Amino acid sequence: MSNRARDGLPLVALLAATAAIAAANPQPLASGGRLHSALQIKPGLWQFDDNAKVTGEAVFPDAVLAGVPEGQRAQHLAELRQMISRPSRERECVTQAIFEQRLFAIETSCKRTVQSNTPARLEIQTECEDVSGSLKQHKTAQILATSSTSVTTSFHAVNSRAGKSMTVNSVENGHWLSSNCGNVHGIEQL
Fold it and tell me: pLDDT value at position 9?
């Protein structure tokens, strides 16, 4: 499973820093709100190399354990932690529409705030809570662009529940490969 698929904020957001987004002031985004950007990314085939580190106890949403028998949960959680920590390499065909959808989509239980919004840097903080209020997540994602074809994202996420916490720190480097995506549709694991 790729980091983009597992953490709620697709890491393709690291493309964000290749151009300016409209406002420079922090903007809270309510669950129903949507931010449109003036950002223009270089569309096409991108490759992403990700390295993540997980510390603390295994704290995941209840939905992750749904259907897993009680006796197998500890093993399942250990496997999830190991999968998250495994380096990954992926390719993805990215368009402006995909970028907009992934970067600014809001889960109904989350509040997202854009902290920094410049042509070279985008920082987003996200606070989420499950329906019962027992699981909370605080995440900061920072996207830096060295050029329109090379970007780096890092994120720091803390999940907490009942006095336990799990921290995930990830750094992903992305670079543009081609304007032609060939037969790549969605995220392709390499």
Answer: 30
Helix (H) or strand (E) holding 177: strand 164-178
> CA-based angle 148:151:156, to the nearest 5?
150
35-65 pLDDT tens trace: 545 455 788 999 999 999 999 988 888 778 8
CA distances from 148 to 28, 107, 156 (A): 27, 29, 24
Tokens representing 102 are 């992934």
> Residue 18's closest CA among 141, 139, 152, 116?
152
Tokens of 83: 């999968």
Q: Does 78 have pLDDT greater than 60?
A: yes
C-beta separation of 11 from 139 below 8 A: no
What does each C-alpha distance from 77 to 17, 51, 160 come to in angstroms? 34, 19, 15
